[in-house]
Amino acid sequence: xxxxxxxxxxxxxxxxxxxxxxxxxxxxxxxxxxxxxxxxxxxxxxxxxxxxxxxxxxxxxxxxxxxxxxxxxxxxxxxxxxxxxxxxxxxxxxxxxxxxxxxxxxxxxxxxxxxxxxxxxxxxxxxxxxxxxxxxxxxxxxxxxxxxxxxxxxxxxxxxxxxxxxxxxxxxxxxxxxxxxxxxxxxxxxxxxxxxxxxxxxxxxxxxxxxxxxxxxxxxxxxxxxxxxxxxxxxxxxxxxxxxxxxxxxxxxxxxxxxxxxxxxxxxxxxxxxxxxxxxxxxxxxxxxxxxxxxxxxxxxxxxxxxxxxxxxxxxxxxxxxxxxxxxxxxxxxxxxxxxxxxxxxxxxxxxxxxxxxxxxxxxxxxxxxxxxxxxxxxxxxxxxxxxxxxxxxxxxxxxxxxxxxxxxxxxxxxxxxxxxxxxxxxxxxxxxxxxxxxxxxxxxxxxxxxxxxxxxxxxxxxxxxxxxxxxxxxxxxxxxxxxxxxxxxxxxxxxxxxxxxxxxxxxxxxxxxxxxxxxxxxxxxxxxxxxxxxxxxxxxxxxxxxxxx
Length: 550
Ligand code: MEZ
Hints:
8-stranded mixed β-sheet; 550 residues; 34% helix; alpha/beta; binds (2E)-2-methylbut-2-enedioic acid
C-alpha cells in the first residue's frame, strides 16, 4: 500500500479497525438503513449539485428559450455556428446515403446494424475512432429483467422511481420491454457475459433496483458490448461505411424542413464534406467534458454535447438539460486517477462507504443522486471527509471487504480493470480502500424523442445519451448501456421504414442556421466569442493560451 502517503496510511488504520465487525454484520444481511423518501428529497435539495442555483441561467434563444440551464450548456447554445454558411457550396455533394448516423458509440453502431438488416446503405460519421465513446468506458453492467422472479414490469417501476417520476412513460416501457431481447441479441453476436458454473447469467443488484438484473462482463461490460457490435459492423462494411475523425457540425434540412444530411468536418485535413441522406440519426453521446459545476468526469474526450447543439439549431427542443448525473464513486486519489469511474459493482459486491473515522454513514446502494448527496453531505456538512495531498475531499470505499465476503481473489476476478488502474500506483484495492467523491458521469436529459427515437423534425432521429426523457432526472446503473442499444436499434428500424418511403431531397439548406444566427443578434446575445459544436474540450492552461494568441 505504499501508493498512499504516510498520513493516509494512518487514516486507513481506522477503516481496518472497524472492518471485521462490519463484515460480520454484512454476512448476517444487516445493512446501514436506507433513507426514507422524505429524507431523500431533503438531502437532494440540500446537497445535490443539480439543486444549486449557482452556475445556471435562462437560455436566451431557441426552442427552450427561457429555460434555466447550466451555464456551460446555455453558452454553447448561444454560440455561433462554426460554419460560414455563405461560403459553403451546398450544391456540391461529397457523399450520399440512405441513413447518415452521426456518432459511432453503442447507439450509432446498433442503429447502423438494424438499418443494414432492413436493407439500407448506412454512412457513419464519427468525431474520433469507431467506438470512442462512453459506451466503451461503461463498467458495471447492463440491466434486463430476464431472470426468474423478475419482469419488465418491476424494471419499469424501478426506472420510474429512480427518475423521481419525471421520465416519459412510453420511453421507459420501450427500454424495459426490449431489454431481454437486447441481451439475447448481444449473446447471439458472441458477447461473453459473466455466467454461473451451470451456465445461467450471473446477475447483481444496482442502486435502486428491487431485483438482481445487472448483467456484466467483469468491470468492462461496455468494452465487451462495443467489441461485438463494432466487429459486426465491420463484417458488414459493404453496406456500413465508416468515416472516422469527421464530426458533424450542422444538420442539413431540405426545403420542407426535413432532415436531409449534414455538414462534416475532417479533423485532419480541415475540409468540410456535404453528406446528403434520406434520414439522419444523431447519436453523439453526452456532455461530461463540459465539466458542469467544475466536476471532474468519467466521460470520454469527445463528450461535448455536439448533437444537442446541432439538433437545437435545427429546431428540436431539449429536455431535462439541467439534470446531471454525478456518479457517487469517482476516484480522487491518486491525482492521475481523479474523476475515473469506480463502478457501482464495487458496492454491489459489498464494499461500504466510510468517513474519516471508519464509520458507515449511508446505505451503499441508494439511487445515484441520493448516494452522491450523502457523500457530499458527509464531507462538506458533517466535516468527516478525508483530505488528499492536493486538497480534494473524499470518503473511503472499503474494497477489501469484497474478498472477505466472497473469498480471496474476488476483487481481481470481478474487477480486473479497477485492480490494474490502482496497482499502477502501487495501491492494491483488494487490501486497501479507495478514496472517492462524486464525479460527472451522465447527461440525464437531452434531445426530445418519442419511443421510436423520432424527433420533432421529420427524418431526424436521436438515440443514446444525447437523447432525453427515458431516465427522467436520475438514471439508474446499467440502464445507459441498455438505452444505447434499445433506442439505437429502434432508431435504425424506424429510420429504415422512413428512408424507404423517401427519395434524396433535391435541395439542401442551412437556412435554419442563418435564422438562428439572426435570432442571436436580435436577442442581444450578440457574439459571445465562441463557436459550437465544441468538438473537443480545451484544457490548455492560461499561460499556454496566452502564447497561442496571434
Ligand atoms: O450505468 C452505468 O453508469 C454504470 C454501469 C456505471 C458503473 O457504475 O459501472
